[in-house]
Design brief:
Pfam families: HTH_38, MobC. With 196 residues, the chain is mainly α. It is built from eight helices and no strands.
């Protein structure tokens, strides 16, 4: 199978089409009777590679820090993905789904923001009453009812914080599913998602 023969343009297009469908490099190389390295070369060669719709591909250049690149490679390794260029290509194709705003979460956050503004206004009113009394030399008007009001406001703030955390976790799970879908088929055989 390790033949070093040159692929035809039609075979190169077939490699790109099959890979875009999620067919593994190993399966493509077996079908075309070439080495996996040959398939990777076709996929990675920017100047002569062509996309599934027969248009030329483009080479993208970007700068990242060593730390960012190590983090990205580690994330790919946890998913059993060996080739960052394949992963980047899949993530670019899936960007519309991955980067789509969550309208329900946005609306919920607007509601929580309005509630938090009301809490802030209530706390300001209590502080203003206390400051006015202090400036006038009067006894501070902090009654058991004021204490109950402050406690209720604190409970509300903590409840909102819990809701925001849960929305964050739900959004994170949804994004993880989108990324997993986008990267489907890239994992090495036997590699487990999430394995350290």
């Amino acid at each position: 199978m390790g033949s070093s023969r040159r692929l035809t343009d039609q075979e190169r297009r077939q490699v790109v089409r099959e890979r875009a469908k999620g067919v593994s490099v190993r399966a493509i190389s077996a079908t075309l009777k070439v080495s996996p390295k040959t398939v990777y070369n076709v996929l990675g060669r920017g100047r002569s590679a062509v996309s599934a719709n027969d248009s030329r591909t483009r080479v993208l250049t970007m700068r990242v820090t060593d730390r960012d690149l190590r983090g990205f490679d580690a994330a790919l390794a946890r998913r059993g993905i060996a080739h960052r260029s394949d992963a980047l290509r899949c993530l670019i194709v899936a960007a519309d789904d991955i980067l789509r705003p969550d309208d329900a979460m946005t609306e919920e956050l607007r509601g929580l923001s309005a509630a938090l503004n009301r809490v802030g206004n209530n706390v300001n009113q209590i502080a203003r009453r206390l400051n006015e009394a202090k400036l006038k030399g009067e006894r501070l008007p902090y009654t058991p009812a004021s204490h109950t009001e402050i406690r209720d406001l604190a409970v509300l703030v903590f409840d909102m914080a819990d809701q925001i955390q849960e929305m964050f976790r739900a959004r994170r799970r949804a994004l993880d599913l989108e990324v997993t879908r986008a990267l489907a088929g890239l994992a090495r055989p036997g590699a487990e998602h999430g394995a350290e």
